Amino acid sequence: MSARIAITGAASGIGAAAAKRLSARGASVVGLDVNGSDEIVECDVRDQESVDRAVAEAIERLGGGIDVLINNAGVGFSQSAGAAPDEKALAVLDINLIGPWRVTAAALPALRSSRGRVVNVSSGLAHLALPFAPAYCMSKRGLVAYSDALRLEHGDAITVTTVYPGYIKTPIHDSSNADGVSLDGMVPEEPLSAAAETLVRAALGTPTRDLATTRQGAIGYALARRAPRRLMDALTLRTIRRQVRGGSFDDSEMAREYVGRMR
Q1: pLDDT 10s digits, 184-224
Q2: Residue 233 DSSP one-character state
Q3: CB–CB of 125/186 below 8 Å?
Q4: At what angle do helices 192-204 and 13-24 cross, to 10 degrees?
Q5: Given this model, what pLDDT does residue 111 score?
Q6: What is the pLDDT of residue 185?
Q7: Residues 70/13, Cβ–Cβ less than 8 Å
C-alpha cells in the first residue's frame, strides 16, 4: 500500500515541490494550505477548528488513515528584537510554532494507529539567530523542542524527524525583502529541489531524528551546535558588518538606527 501523506503549506514553495515529488514516488498525498483549492484542503493552522476539519478531510481523502504528517506551513515576517512584538511577530509564532502542534494533535490518533511519522520543517536559523528575525528564529528553535517533546511522549508509536532547510528563495522571504532586511549574502543559498528531496527522504526513507537539506548545511549546523555561543555571535556580527558596509540594509527603515550604530 502506498504511503498516505498530509503536508501543510502545500500551495507553494517547499510544500508544493515536496508534494509533487512524493506523488511521483507513488505516495498518496493530500495538501493543506490556507489557500485551498480543488486539490488542496483549506486549512488555517492558527485556528484549531479549521485544523480539525482539514485533518479529518485529509484522512478521509487518504482512505481513512495517515502514515506521514509533514508540518511545513510557515511565514517569515521581519521585526526588531528591541521593539514590542506586533501582529506580524505574533503571527509568525502562531503559524510556525503553535501551528504544527495544532495539526499534529489533530492527526495524532490516526498516526499512532498507523505507527506513522511526523516531519517538522524547522530551519537552519534554529541554530543561528540573525537580527530582524527574532520571531522566526524563536519559532524554528522552539519547533525543535516540540519535536523532542513529541518524541519523548509518543515515540512508542510514531517517529519524529526535524528537517533544517537553509536559505531558499521562496515567497516566504518576500516580506523581509520588502522591509530591506534580505538574507541574501547573510547565509548560503540552497536549491528548492534539495529541500523537497529531503522531505521525500524524511517521509519515505529510514526514520531519522534530524535532517539538513544539503551536506554543507549538515556540516554547518553541526559546527554551530558545538561552537561556543560567543564565537558564533562574533562570526555572525562580522558577517552583518560586512553586509552593512556593502549597503545591504540602507533601504530599511527598520534597520536604520541599527546600521548607524554598526557604522
Answers
A1: 766 778 999 999 999 999 999 999 999 999 999 999 899 98
A2: H
A3: no
A4: 50
A5: 98
A6: 66
A7: no
The catalytic site residues sit at 136
Residue of 65, 70, 78 lying closest to 112 (CA atoms) = 65
- Of 19, 17, 16, nearest to 5 by C-alpha is 19
* DSSP classification of residue 3: P
CB neighbour list of residue 73: distance below 8 Å, 6 or more residues apart: 8, 9, 15, 32, 33, 34, 45, 95, 96, 99, 100
Instruction: Judge whether residue 1 has pLDDT over 80.
Output: no
What is the average pLDDT across 70-95? 96
| Model confidence band, residue 170 (pLDDT cutoffs 50, 70, 90) | confident
Please check the confidence at residue 99 and state whether its pLDDT lies above 90.
yes
Write b or e for each residue in 124-163: b if 16 or more Cβ atoms lie within 10 A of its Cβ, otherwise e. Answer: bbbbbbbbbbbbbbbbbbbbbebbeebbeebeeebbbbbb
213 vs 123: CA distance, rounded Å: 10
Pairing type for strands 68-71 and 28-33 reads: unpaired
pLDDT exceeds 80 at position 179: no
10 Å CB burial of residue 33 (0-12, 13-18, 19+) is buried
| End-to-end CA, the chain | 61
Helices (H), the chain: 13-24, 48-61, 87-93, 99-114, 134-154, 174-178, 192-204, 215-226, 229-245, 256-262
3-state secondary structure of 60: helix
Cell of 78: 521581519
